[in-house]
Design goal:
Number of helices: 11
Helix content: 40-55%
Number of strands: 2
Strand content: under 5%
Oligomer: single chain
Length: 321
């Protein structure tokens, strides 16, 4: 074909569907393109009708309508939930009954019951204790760390259970641990500021092994005359009096010189609620097992087992403030 032999140009293009005049159109047309009204495939129609029939049967057999709880099968998700909750309660009651009958030491000695008690105690701790002791039981300033082995009132299972039950210096439980408050040596003018400064310096020698000087020697004398009665001549503490050790790096109210000065000047008197007035004895046993198992729990005394929530254990006794 020669260069000039180009095909003639069409001024109008006819859409291909216009060539089929045997199929009706829907009447929709855009830019010359019409929408054909072809019938659906017969198999597709039957499948569609089948899904409708299936849906009706499904709605009758299983719950599918709001507020309708009766079905041909008798099954409902609500009913399944209630059945599962009843089964869970039945399994829980097996352990709950055991915990009611067992003392706290027997619970700790039974691996299966201990596992249940620890899990339940963790939940109780999160709801009732974490606000003060922290979600991980690491404590905070003024609130004891329950993860280490430093116990102000003793860390055996019986000690912990008793302290949880009756609390400390709360004024609401006559059996609460009440060793009395720490004296406010500065505010009550029992010691001068200079004497307190010397004691603070001496505590650095006791707790950290710092080299002594004239100030620490004066502080040692003041400590022996005013502090050793409760905390011991070597700062070893006294659980019967609720006096924590001062010869290590664990400080309930902060271990800086400023914190120690403030403690000696103003005194301290930590308070813990008597949870026995709010929780059941079983719940307290679970809490005791959980706290004891956090890592710092002490070995159980060899004395005969007694109700941990009713009898004050012999020294070394109690639980952290």
């Amino acid at each position: 074909m020669a260069k000039n032999d180009t095909p003639p140009r069409k001024d109008n293009f006819e859409a291909p569907n216009k060539l089929n005049r045997n199929v009706e159109t829907t009447g929709h047309e855009w830019d010359g393109i019409e929408e054909l009204n072809n019938p659906l495939p017969r198999w597709w129609v039957w499948v569609f009708l089948g899904t409708i029939v299936f849906a009706i049967g499904y709605m009758a057999y299983y719950p599918a309508l709001p507020l309708v709880h009766y079905t041909v099968s008798g099954w409902t998700s609500r009913g399944q939930l209630m059945a599962e909750m009843q089964n869970a309660d039945a399994e829980k009651h097996v352990f709950e009954d055991k915990i009611v009958r067992m003392d706290v030491q027997a619970i700790a000695d039974d691996a299966e019951v201990r596992t249940y008690a620890t899990a339940a105690g963790r939940m109780l701790f999160s709801v009732n204790c974490s606000q003060c002791h922290g979600s991980g039981a690491a404590g905070a300033k003024g609130y004891p760390n329950l993860l280490d082995d430093e116990w102000i009132h003793g860390g055996t299972l019986a000690d912990i259970a008793y302290t949880i039950t009756h609390g400390i210096r709360n004024g609401t439980d006559e059996k609460a641990r009440n060793p009395g408050p720490m004296a406010a040596f500065g505010k009550d003018e029992l010691l001068t500021k200079e004497q307190i400064d010397d004691v603070v310096n001496y505590l650095s020698v006791l707790a950290h092994g710092f080299k002594g000087n004239e100030s620490t020697e004066r502080g040692k004398t003041v400590f022996a005359e005013n502090c050793a009665l409760c905390h011991g001549d070597q700062g070893q503490g006294n659980r019967e009096l609720g006096a924590p050790p001062l010869n290590n790096a664990i400080w309930l109210y902060g271990g800086s010189n400023k914190d120690r000065f403030e403690t000696i000047w103003n005194g301290r008197a930590g308070v813990m609620p008597a949870w026995g007035q709010k929780l059941s004895e079983s719940d307290i046993k679970k809490l005791a097992v959980y706290v004891h198992g956090l890592g710092g729990g002490e070995a159980v005394a060899t004395a005969p087992a007694v109700s941990a929530t009713e009898v004050v254990p012999a020294a070394p006794a109690a639980a952290r403030e």
